């Protein structure tokens, strides 16, 4: 299976971590902003990243892709089957893809992507806005992380991947939750990022970014 997307995208990372946890091998074909890659365009007509090709089947959007992977290989499911667990997982997936990604994304794009890859100055106002939006995100997670150390039930799931992935981008910019203010969140992220599935990609990204 081929995955198209930027190796520093939180959505691409979400799929790569999910696949690694499932034991599914994906070939990552890097695609950047404005890349005219025809194979990527064929899989994602609106250039939504990431996109997956599996034989003659193709699909874009990280949630659609992980749903496909989990259904195709149901062993060691990362999406709970019970009604409440699945609903909570869908919530955290949406929370991560929209609310967390929006806050961290403003900072990441204007601190790293725009100046480094587009050769344009970042917008300081958007950086400040993203930093402000990051506060309620951290407040919320600090209030809901359970004693189990996982957001849904007693096991690692898509909920943890989706909620945590944009924190990697935030950390690349030096935006890390204060340990004294957010002790539960700090411990949670350390545990999640310490998993081999996350750690391998974070190390690779640091090399790409020279950090």
Output the radius of gyration.
Answer: 17 Å
Shape: globular
Strand order of the largest sheet: 2-1-3-4
Oligomer: single chain
Give a written overview of the molecule.
- With 211 residues, the chain is of the alpha+beta class.
- The protein has 2 domains: 2-72, Glutaredoxin (3-Layer(aba) Sandwich); 83-209, Up-down Bundle (Glutathione S-transferase Yfyf (Class Pi), Chain A, domain 2).
- Helix content is 60%, strand content 8%.
- Strands 2-1-3-4 form a 4-stranded mixed sheet.
- β1, α1 and β2 (27-30) form a beta-alpha-beta unit.
- The longest helix is centred in the middle third of the chain and has 35 residues, at 83-117.
- The relative contact order is 0.14.
Outline the fold blueprint.
Layout lengths: L1 E4 L4 H13 L4 E4 L7 H6 L7 E4 L2 E4 L1 H11 L10 H35 L6 H21 L13 H15 L10 H11 L2 H14 L2
Parallel strand pairs: 1-2
Antiparallel strand pairs: 1-3, 3-4
Helix pairs in contact: 1-3, 1-6, 4-5, 4-6
Q: Summed up, what is this model?
A:
With 211 residues, the chain is α+β, with helices and mostly antiparallel strands.
Which short descriptors sum up this protein?
four-stranded mixed beta sheet, 211 residues, 8 helices, Glutaredoxin, 2 domains, alpha+beta, Glutathione S-transferase Yfyf (Class Pi), Chain A, domain 2
């Amino acid at each position: 299976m081929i995955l198209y997307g930027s190796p520093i995208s939180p959505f691409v990372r979400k799929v790569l971590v999910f696949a690694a946890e499932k034991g599914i091998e994906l070939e990552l074909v890097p695609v950047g902003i404005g890349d005219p890659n025809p194979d990527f365009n064929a899989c994602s007509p609106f250039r939504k990243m990431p996109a997956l090709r599996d034989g003659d089947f193709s699909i874009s959007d990280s949630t659609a892709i992980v749903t496909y992977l989990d259904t195709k290989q149901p062993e060691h499911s990362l999406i709970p089957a019970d009604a409440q667990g699945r609903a909570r997982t869908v919530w955290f997936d949406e929370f991560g893809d929209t609310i967390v990604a929006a806050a961290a994304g403003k900072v990441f794009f204007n601190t790293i992507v725009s100046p480094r890859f587009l050769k344009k100055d970042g917008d300081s106002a958007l950086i400040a806005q993203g930093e402000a939006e990051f506060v309620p995100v951290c407040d919320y997670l600090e209030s809901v992380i359970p004693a189990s150390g996982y957001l849904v039930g007693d096991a690692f799931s898509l909920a943890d991947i989706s909620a945590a992935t944009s924190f990697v981008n935030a950390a690349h910019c030096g935006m890390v939750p204060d340990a004294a203010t957010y002790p539960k969140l700090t411990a949670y992220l350390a545990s999640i990022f310490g998993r081999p599935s996350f750690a391998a990609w974070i190390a690779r990204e640091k090399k790409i970014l020279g950090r």
